[in-house]
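Appendix B, Record 12. Input sequence as logged:
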Amino acid sequence: MTRRQKRRLHRDNGGREALANIVRTAERIKGDIDTERKPRLAFPIRSLSNVVYDEDKGIFRLAGGEAIRDLSYTTVKTFAQSLRMMALSKMLIETDDIATKRDVYYQSKNWDEARFNEQPESDTIMDDIEAMLSVIREQLGFIPDEHGGGVAGELVVIDQDPATGEDIQIDCTKFGSGAYTVPPNVEHLRFKTRAKFVLAIETTGMFQRLVKHAFWKTADCILVAMGGVPSRACRRFIRKLADDHRLAVYVFTDGDPYGYTNIYRTLKVGSGNAAHLNEFFCVPQAKYLG
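Logged structural output:
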């Protein structure tokens, strides 16, 4: 495989499906306009009223309810914002670029009457598009602003050079008193490990103590710092690593109700408000350590 082919493979990881879904949606809307029908967008309802617990998969998932966004006098702005968001995503995918959620909000200031007044408005439309297209936000070219978590221990992460597509092997035992940082998009990552399990830790302080004392070497494991409620990238990293190498996952929190009902629950079964993503981001095999 040539360097150019490797680079294209890196770029197309998940983006091709997202791009196809965007084009399909745009063509359908254009067809509605050409035939003088009212254009509409159908979004899964992202609320607890439309969420059920799937016992077989061990996750919260959507029940199937949909909300319809017609092009009308009252919805013209949100409809236009949805289309502009999809157009921005298409451009990012085609140019192999990315934008943070904050970037998208500020770029909307050039959208004239379709601009967002506050970032929560932008975030909501972005989540709607993600759910409607049945892809994850990172495949749309949108990345989070938050830290993805730290990793140390018996793990080699195989990433790719964005410029050449060449493999880069990152040894997580070689960071001294520091740690490898989980990137915003982990879909293209591969792993090599002989570890016996993953230990996901709520606080960065406890993670740093365990790194200082090389606990990963004693226990033959991989340490992951969640830094509170784990980010999407952190959850996806743990899920992908555990699935790829059939590793047990244990979760260590502060031992208070918040640690169990929020941090552990989010990692294990997902979030009710983000049930459209739980199939990809939760870790059903995770077990509460204490």
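The chain has ten helices and 15 strands.
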